[in-house]
Amino acid sequence: MAKIVEILGVSHSPYLPGLFKQYPDVDDGTRKAYENYQLFHDRMKRCRPDVLLSIGSDHLNEFFMNNMPAFMVGKPPHTHGPHPKEVRNHLDAPDYRASVDVDLAKSILRHGFDRGVDFAFSDEVIIDHSFTIPLAFIRPEMDLPIVPLFTNVMAPPVPPAQRFYDVGRAVRAIVDELPDSMRVGVIASGHLALDVGGPKMRQGSANPDWDVRIVKLIEAGEVSQVIREAAWDNLQQIGNVTPGFLNFVMLMGLAQGGRPSFAEVNLSPDHGSTPFIEWNPSGD
Amino acid sequence: MSRYHVDKVLFEVTGDPDCRRRFLEDSASYLDGRELEPGERQALIDRDYRALYISGAQPLMLWQFTVSVLASPEKPARQLMQEYLAAIAPFGRPDYST
């Protein structure tokens, strides 16, 4: 049977690649974030995944409101990023190229219907920095196929937090029941308190206290409370891109509501807070 | 209100260099034939980010648009941000769903 061997939740702040080049001459939070990415690289490697399910959210680069999927599985044979729009606008995101495990992508699509999730799909899709940054830090070897899973957190109406949780549970059940013996690693990226274009816009976190508190709630396995906190209106008041947090709610579903084995958040004045959350279902 | 069509202009101008060039050269012509309210059309022509914010433009794209059409060596994005924040802060968080 297939199994999910490792589940990691991280940041995709585009300030990180440049700051990490200055390591260790950076602030404490950034230094710790660099070290935590190394740790997560090692932990994913130790779990010997065959494929990576990569969960991220397009920043209105590839998708627009003319055709906006809530949850979408990418299944072109290959994909790459960052998006050309991001490159032209000088966003500092590393290149990433990967083959796509089309069979796994199709399995998620087909069995999604059985589990009440009608995923959209694309046979031609580019991954933006919400995918390339975590992949480049956690799997810089670029030696594994991926399945990109896109979530809409930018263009309301966005699915409610409970739906993110339920879709995470559905994906876990789908993978657990596949007959193949593949080992699936999961990497999701998202936002904590962050405002881009709203009244709390700044380079750092829009609310570091909330960042610390919400990660503690995840650490405690407080699913119901996290889902309540992740209501759209609440996240919007914290910062207009804070709904990127919903991807971590999906991870809680993928982890079947269990407590993470590692949860930390690193604060820095130079970028949004960087969460590092790990569930290790394989025990490796 | 034609919020979607405002967002579409922001999407095009920030994402496509040719669209940006044509918008900067002649904004009025660029906007001809679009389903925009007169106030929205004028706000885009005037680069009036305050009015666009109040009317519910998608904030991430609005900020990218503001940088794309107004940032310059004389007024870098960091300085522009202070003016942008001062202009929009009184208006809280308008609904930007389409």
- If you compute it from the alpha carbons, what radius of gyration of chain B comes out, rounded to the nearest whole angstrom? 13 Å
Number of strands of chain A: 10
**What is the chains' assembly state?**
heterodimer
Q: How many helices of chain A?
A: 10
What gap, in angstroms, lies between the N and C termini of chain B? 10 Å
Describe this structure in words.
The complex is a heterodimer of chains A (284) and B (98). Helices cover 36% and strands 19% of the residues of chain A. With 284 residues, chain A is of the alpha/beta class. An 8-stranded mixed sheet of chain A has the order 6-3-7-2-8-1-10-9, sandwiched between helices. Chain B is mainly alpha-helical and 98 residues long. Chain B has helices at residues 3-15, 17-25, 27-31, 38-45, 49-54, 59-70, 77-88. Chain B is globular, with a radius of gyration of 13 Å. Chain B starts with a helix and ends in a 10-residue tail after the last helix. The chains are: A alpha/beta (284), B mainly alpha (98). Chain A binds chain B through residues 59-61, 64-66, 85, 88-89, 154-157, 196-199, 201, 236-237, 240-241, and chain B through 4, 7-8, 11, 14-15, 17, 53, 58-64, 68, 81, 84-85, 88-89, 91-93, 95-98.
Task: Please give the structural blueprint.
The complex is a heterodimer of chains A (284) and B (98).
Chain A: E1 3-11, H1 16-20, H2 28-46, E2 51-56, E3 71-74, E4 78-81, H3 84-88, E5 96-99, H4 102-114, E6 120-122, H5 129-138, E7 146-151, H6 161-176, E8 183-190, H7 208-219, H8 223-229, H9 232-238, H10 246-254, E9 262-266, E10 274-279
Helix pairs in contact in A: 4-6, 6-10
Chain B: H1 3-15, H2 17-25, H3 27-31, H4 38-45, H5 49-54, H6 59-70, H7 77-88
